[in-house]
Structure formats: C-alpha cells, structure tokens
Amino acid sequence: MASGDLEWLDGGVTAVPGILAGGIVAGIKPSGKKDLALIYSSTPARAAAVFTSNQVKGAPVLVSTEHVRSGQAQAIVASSGCANVCTGERGIQDAREMTRLVGELLRIPANHVLIASTGVIGVPLPMDKIRAALPKLAKSLSPQGGRAAAEAILTTDTRIKEAALRVEVGGRPVTIGGIAKGVAMLEPHLATMFCFVATDAVVARGALSPAVRRAVDRSFNRTTIDSDQSTSDTVAVLANGLAENTPLESGARGLRQFAGGLEALMTKLARLLVADGEGATKLVTIAVRGATSRRDALLAARSVANSPLVKTAINGQDPNWGRIMMALGKSPARVEQEKVSIAVGDERLVERGMLKEGVRLERVREIMGESEYDITIDLGLGRGEERVWTCDLSEEYVRLNAKYTT
Amino acid sequence: MASGDLEWLDGGVTAVPGILAGGIVAGIKPSGKKDLALIYSSTPARAAAVFTSNQVKGAPVLVSTEHVRSGQAQAIVASSGCANVCTGERGIQDAREMTRLVGELLRIPANHVLIASTGVIGVPLPMDKIRAALPKLAKSLSPQGGRAAAEAILTTDTRIKEAALRVEVGGRPVTIGGIAKGVAMLEPHLATMFCFVATDAVVARGALSPAVRRAVDRSFNRTTIDSDQSTSDTVAVLANGLAENTPLESGARGLRQFAGGLEALMTKLARLLVADGEGATKLVTIAVRGATSRRDALLAARSVANSPLVKTAINGQDPNWGRIMMALGKSPARVEQEKVSIAVGDERLVERGMLKEGVRLERVREIMGESEYDITIDLGLGRGEERVWTCDLSEEYVRLNAKYTT
Question: Which end of chain B is more exposed for a tag (fewer CB within 10 A), N or C?
Fold first, then answer.
C-alpha cells in the first residue's frame, strides 16, 4: 500500500482494533426493531464530536457537548425511536442517567460516555425499558457487533450504512471505521443524522477535533435531502491509539494523510445517507465551477440542490434546465445568465444561458434515468468550485412525512 | 361609506371605470385554452410595476422594466404557455415586437405597452401565431372582459383570481381592481406570478411607485408555496385618474387611504394564489410574535412556512409540533427553545418549548382538518411580529412537477 493510499475494508466501526459494539431491542420503537446501540473502546480514546447547529437542541446533544469537552471518551450509547428533544429538565436528567448507567456497566466515568437519540420530538424516553435493557446491551458488545449497532440507530432508513478503510499515515497503517444513519431533516449543518467513527490511530491532543470538523464540513455538510435540519445531529469520533503510529500532530504530514482517510470515509457514509433519503430514487451530484468564489459556488450549488422544482424534475427524469437556471438566479451567488452552461453527465445541455443547439435530449433523459449522475454547472465568471449531493423529491417523501410523526 | 372604509365589489380589473380587457386563444398552449390577454386603459394612465428579483430574468421583464420607467402606460399584454425566458436576443426582439404590434393596434406608443409571459422556460414564443392573434385580441377588448383576461394568464392554476374594491380617499370613492395568477415557483420576492391592477384614482407623479412597492411587500412577498422564485414575476398597476379625486400626493392622508385599499386588494389576491398553490389543500397563516425584531419574526415565519417537513405535516393534518420547533431552531432568527409557545387556531399546543399539559390534541387535529387556519408562534423574547401565508406540500405537488415541463 503506497503512503496516503486508501484501502477499503469490509464492515464498519468494529473493523477497528479494540472497538466492540452491539445493538438490541429495548422496546422504544413500537415496531419491535433494534433501537439501542453501544460502541465501546476497550482502551481510553481521544474523542471529538460535531453537533447540530440548530438552536433547538436535544437533551442528548447538550449532555454529549459537555462530556466531549475533556477530549476523552470510551463509549457511545445511542437510541432510536425517541429523540428526547423538547423534553425539558426531565430530558436532561434521563440523558445523564443513561450515561451514568452505561459508565457503571463498563466501569468508566459517566463523562466518558457520549449519548445520542433520534426519533419523535417532544416525548420523554421510556426510561423503565431503557434501564432494563442496558445490562443486556453491555453484554451484547462484540468485535463483530458493528452491524447490529448500525441497525439499532436506524429510523426510516431502509438500509444500514457502514464503511471502513485502512490508510497509511507516517508509514504505518491505521484503520478508520464508522456507521451512520439519517434520511430526512437532512441539510447543511447536520440533521437527524448520526455518524459514529472509530480509529486506532494515535492522534495528538488538539489535532483530532480540527480534522473531524474539516471532514464533516467536506462530507455531511455538503449533503441535502430536504433542507430541514434536525435537533439531534451528532458526529462522534473515537481514536484509541492501538495502531501505535507516531502521534499525529497538527501540521504534520501524517495528520494530513489521516484527515484524507477520515474525509473519504465520511464522504462515503454521507453519500449512502443521501442515496437512502426518504423516498429518494436518485443520488445527484450538483457540481458548480466558474463561480467568483468558492463561497458563491457553494451557495449556487445549494440553491439548485434544494429547489423543490429541480428535485421534482430529477424525480420525473425531465431535462427541465429552465428550473436549474431559475434556482441559480434566485441564489445569493453572482450569476450572469448569458454566461451559464450546464451539463448532465457528459452531455452539454445549456450554453450561454440557452439550450445548446444540437443537444441530444434523448441522451440527457437516458442519463437522468440512472440512479447516480452529475449535473455540472459552469457560471463562467471565475475559479470558484464546489459540489453538493442531493436526491430527488418524490411522492413517497410526502407520503412518508404526511403520516410519520417524527 | 365611511372615509377609508373598503367596499368589496364583484369582478376584477374591469370593475374600474375606463378599463377594458380581453382574453383569447392564440394557440400557444397545446391544450387549446385561452393564452393571450390584454388590459387597456382608454385614457393614458400613471403606471408602476415590480418585477422578479431573480438574477435570471425573462425577456418580457427586461422590456417592461424599460417601458415602465417613464411612469406612463396604457396597456398590458400577457401570454401564457411560453415564458420567453433564456431565449437570448431573439426573445428580446419578440417581446419588443409584441409591444409594437399592440401599440399599433391601440394607436399608442410601443413604450406605453407593458408585457408579461409565463410558461415553459427556454423555448421561443410562437410569433407567427401571436402575430395572427393580436388583431383578434384587440377586438375582444370590452368593459366585461376582465374575466377572460384573468383566464388567459393561467398556467397550472385551477381557478381564476380576481378582486375589486371601492375605497374613499379624501372624501371621494375610487375603484381598484385586479387579476392575478401563479401557483408554483412562488416565494418571497414574487414568482411565476402576475398581478395586474387598475384604478381610476388620480395619483401624483412619484406617489404610485412607493405605494405599489409597499403593498407588494406586505402581500405577495409574504406568501410561499415552494420557496422557488420565478424569472417572470410581474406586478403592474395602471391609474387612469377617471375618479377625478384630488391628486394623491406623497405624505397625504388620501394616499394612505388609497395605499390601504391597494394592500387589501393585493392581500386578497395573494391569499387566492396560495390557496390555489400546486397540489395545495390548505391555506395556513404562520404568525410569529415575541421576536426580538420584526425582521427576526419574518425570518422565523419563513423558516416554518418553507420547511418541507412542516408542510407535509400540514398535509397529513398531523400536530407534529416538534417539526415547528426544528424549523424555528434552524432559522437565523434568535430563538430560545424554553421560551417558545405555539398555538394551532385557538388551541395552545406548546408552552415553554414543551407539549402543554392537558392540550386537546383531538381539537388540534380538528382545526388542522379545516381548509384555512393559523399557526401562532410566540418566541417570548420581544415585540417583533410578522406573518406569512403558506400551503401544504402534497403528493399532488410532486406529481404535477415531476411531469409538467415549466
């Protein structure tokens, strides 16, 4: 393996040495599916996390924010079916109690346990069921338990999301593995979205958190399903150091290699989230270049990626480029209509703001029939580039959300 | 009629003395429905207009912007079925030619004709058909033609929208009447939205335009159907002065009375637009109070009004208040979750950011079953108030837009 190269591995978070996980049925979900997950590092780990920027935050987010401040953690407990959001003082007490009980079972301090919950807002956690289930959850921990944990954090997801890779840092291979969930309320700065990552890399104090923030910004913060933003989003990373590499220090080449691996892993998980967006049938990359700045490129890409009319056209496999022009024009990014060109896949559709002469619309429709493709927009103004992943807006999305109480 | 009081009248734009209108089939729409409309003031009129703020603008918007600059106009020609947007130099020439031909038929200067087109983007107007139809359109003008004109500007609208009222200004009654269209790409600053208003009021030079801008801001710019914004939006007002009132000068009481009437008329038309939103089954007023500023109140109201998850919950008649909390929290407005209260109709649902004890959820569901209701949010922080009208997001909206090429 060449230095800095990635090698994808099977499995997810438990592909990492020293990481155990488990997932069980606690009875929180009325469906009777798995709803309680635990990830455990057998040795103390460096920890960093990023949470929702929504001003309304769930109790687990508040408690985890406090616990991660020390930069150390050894376990992550997560429940699905009830978000424990807008539940007042009682919600905070419930979240604290869960971390305390997990800490006692694993013989670690409560503040080395991170917590995350997803599901319905405004309903208290069924603590009796959770108290009864936690000992069983701790017993379920195993080096093969990543998949069960990935399953236990799902809500309306249709598929589990896990990924793992090996990357050489400073001449030594380290493993990074993770699981994720999230299919709606998903936009920019995280939303009903969890991503739990573990790595055996030795990362110096102060170096993990910036690497995590950057990877999140380049992966999850470039996705959108419906422009809504959850109150519970959590990305947490545990680094247990079992790879015994030279500690990754800020500014060192090894840290850049590690950060590249982290970004690749999170990008893979982020794309899995969008592809499994509620009711989604397509994963579309909106790539913008030629913007006056990178910020403008991102604003333009987001405006297209979030437009309900663009998203319904993607659903209908309709090469309705006028809606893309409309979405560009309404964005705060600088746009001059007569300089815009647009390609779908490898077929140029729009030139100088107008339908390209001789465009093969049949070819465009064919590309739009695929489950993954790119829409590339050149604003013709400068050198700013960005890309965002989006999905279509389908009748199924509306059906799911008109009936499901989140 | 007491001074400043409004009296609603039957009819629309031709309820105003001296205003003729007509609408015919020119063959632009494949459906064979009416698609060409004309409004004509038999005497020269003061004119003011507001156009889309989208950076991508249709050719008719560019031409009308130029023509309205003189503050005088006598006719408005509008077509539906083809928006004449992203059509390059040819589109501009076509729009200019239409105003020239209408001017010749009505014996008025071309630059006293305003033009507006709505429909598919990126396709040139079928000018042969339009040239052939214009003489017939001019002949169709009549004092009863407002309804035909209202019909000829529709696209996916299911109902015509017209309104008229009489208001006393400075002791003299004046009439204001208008027609409107628009059912998608509809958000803040206007979108595939036309509103053509006529009045017999005498308005002083320089006084009409600010009154129109303010009325648009308080009516159409407070609506949202899908957060998308068209490239063709046009609100145009003709004031022909036949009421022979004392000229309405800036700052005068009469102008405030007139502006009140204009705002009432535009508000009625704006609500008709939202109620007929594509696939919409509900017209919901999102009222926010207790914000730290009026601007914050508007930001919070818009965030709730545009949230796909709130809009699908409205569609499903689901009292899913957690989504309202989420949408408030993601808005740029200052929000403290433990100070928020929310009422649906007259039933208080949320207090201090949590479900209110003893709330009658059955009563909330009953209110949400009605076709019009209010959601009132108190942020508990200050005195800022605003309101926005929105509709639900339905499977029908997706069905319409996945298949219809706009």
Answer: N
